[in-house]
Fold this protein.
Amino acid sequence: MRLPDSPDLVIMGDPLLFQQHQQVSVDEIRTDDFQHNLKILMERQLEANGIGIAAPQIGWGARVLCIGISEEAKDRYPSAPDIPQSFWINPQVIEVSRETCWTWEGCLSVPGIRGWVNRPASVKVRGFDDQGATIEASLSGFAARVMLHEIDHLDGILFTGRIDDAKLMIPNVSMETQSSWPENWPTENARITPPGTIAKDR
């Protein structure tokens, strides 16, 4: 398929966000339509000030994602580390750490909501780049978090499904007053961890 030049973001409730998507052939990666779709995917991420986006979020049912923190996105995540902009096609998780960590997650497809989510603290991933070359990376901390969040999209999983307690889901606007939340609410570490940083414990 060939995406329109400015596709709408797909919002929670759309069936496309709850499907496991098929792998892409290397030959397909080099086609004009696929390269066009990659360009649109990154443009849509940057327009939305996202730090990651997966193909299903713009109506493209392919195992493709894009991550990276732009200067504009830094305004939303001032404490986050630098993450270079990169495409990952058919990303596969090769290893995950036993150690886990927590952070506030949001999603372009779940507007207005953040959740306090636990995931592995580090991950090793293998896939293809935008030219079909094999790539591999070991990521830790917030970068690992972003990668795992986006890979979940390719398997039909939203971050809301990773939240184990309703009190750990809040309106995004509440983050603006995080410093005045009640002590230890909703948990001790959730209370003091700004978006873009991680905590070792719940």
